[in-house]
Amino acid sequence: MFVGIANTPRDYAWGSTSAISGLLGTPRSGGPEAELWLGAHPGSPSRIIDPAQTGGATTLAQWIARSPEQAGTDRLPFLLKILAAASPLSLQAHPTPEQAIEGFARENAAGIPLDASHRNYKDAFPKPELIYALSETFEALCGFRSAADLHVTIGRLIQLDAQSPTPQRGVLRRWLDQTGGDDSLGAVFEWLISRGEGVDDLVARVVELARSVPGEFATVELLADVYPGDPGIVISLMLHNVTLSRGEALYLPAGNIHAYLDGLGVELMVASDNVLRGGLTPKHIDVAELIDVLDFRPAEVPYLRPVVSRGVELFSAPGFALAHVSSGGSVTLDGPGIIICVSGSLSVRGGLSAATTSRGESLYVTPDEVELFFDGAGAAFVATGG
Prior knowledge:
Elements: E1 2-6, H1 19-24, E2 35-38, E3 47-48, H2 60-66, H3 68-71, E4 78-85, E5 92-93, H4 97-109, E6 129-133, E7 137-144, H5 147-163, H6 169-178, H7 185-193, H8 199-212, H9 218-226, H10 232-235, E8 239-245, E9 249-252, E10 258-270, E11 276-277, H11 287-293, E12 307-309, E13 312-317, E14 320-326, E15 330-332, E16 337-349, E17 354-358, E18 362-365, E19 371-385
Antiparallel strand pairs: 1-3, 1-18, 2-4, 4-10, 5-11, 6-9, 6-10, 7-8, 7-10, 12-13, 13-14, 14-19, 15-19, 16-17, 16-18, 16-19
């Protein structure tokens, strides 16, 4: 069964005013359009275009709650988004399944309201995610660099400090002295995020030195403009600064600290609201819980490489999969699926029925369609379980 769905983009302040409408050919709202949600998340469930198909249910969440057998699930485990960042999002990380279950139960037992600003765990689910670049470039921070790499960066800042008219060697030296081997990264992060002794002076000095060599520390300059004085500015130098080209993807597992800085992409995640913030935000930061969740081990940039076959690029990760499809492609569903067409028009045939989708249109697909075959002149993304 193919069911037409739609939604209105979320108007978070960091969103682009034109990228989502430009991709999908929809009218601009006149304000920021940050994320288009396709799924059953209660925060913004997709609308059913023809409620007659779903027994009168007007949203995907309502239909699944009323008729799980017809919808093919009692909980849609993933959320598909079109994300358009015109300015940096907060640094954040997400828990493991075990941490989510334990944290949700703990905060429930403590009587913390679900909508409390200081609540960390809004549900009992993890929130790993995948981001696929749709814009020519997509900028992000993700995961910790090695201490050796960080030493090089600090050394360059010390060199710039020494060349300045008013050197402040002690400010940077404190940072360098605390950064020993890779096993020191957690302690350094905690010092920074907690605004320990000397951190405010360090942030100010790093920004001043970055502005003395325009472009060399472009991310520091960007973050300082948006979040002046925030320790996340210095934390960003501990992380991989990644530029994805169109068609490249990252997988961000539990414990990986990350932030999207700029660009248009397709985001796919486990449906959850569990976010531990780590800087670049006015919102609540629970330092102790964040430290427990973060994985401080240096690692390579977590690129997610696709399996490519005729008409399909398949990006698979634990819990979900994203397929980029064009004419001649086929996708096997693992549970329910969601399709969004991003160019042209495609006909799609499943095991029981068929549909047509054009640029800007989306479909929910029940799992009994099993395998989807695409034909026409266009391109789409298909999200399913994994």
